[in-house]
Design brief:
Layout: E1 2-7, E2 18-19, H1 21-33, E3 50-53, H2 57-67, E4 73-74, E5 93-94, H3 95-107, H4 117-134, E6 138-142, H5 144-156, E7 160-162, E8 173-177
Amino acid sequence: MRAVIIRHGKVDFERRKCCTSDEFNEDCDTYDRAPIGVVRSDVSEMKYEAIYVSNLVRTHETARQLFGDEEFIETDLIREVPLCAAFSFKKELPLIMWNVLGRLQWLFNIHVQKEIRRETVRRADQFIKMIIEDHKDCMIVSHGFFMHTLIRCMKKQGFRIHGTHANYSNGEYIVAELEGRG
């Protein structure tokens, strides 16, 4: 069984470089609803039996550009890890601060964030169990930050991973193979 995990296309939205906590939360919500630009990837030439997308519009649009009018299996199990302001603050802080503080809270399972690491891992494990049971070669259109958790969990489940690194560009993919099961 082979799973190709693709990061969605580039979102057509520029976040504010400095913002208050309320503005940061507003930008996060707007980003989740924003359209994407043109996706460049060679995955459409690969063999697959199923295409999974998250419940965020950017994965649907990416899949539509790459695979046309195929039928997609939507699941919130592969949705991006939600991010919100680490605390309420009326003064502007640089965007990088909001991102780093929020992801640190996620990492250390601090419940200020909408989802903590433990919950993200549980979600990834549920998705992996689902695709192993389906046992189909598949395309998975997901999200950059979530991909790291998904890949780590896939390795623990016995998948061999090809093409991993620290950051995934939009439209970039990795291949995960599971042999000897099913």
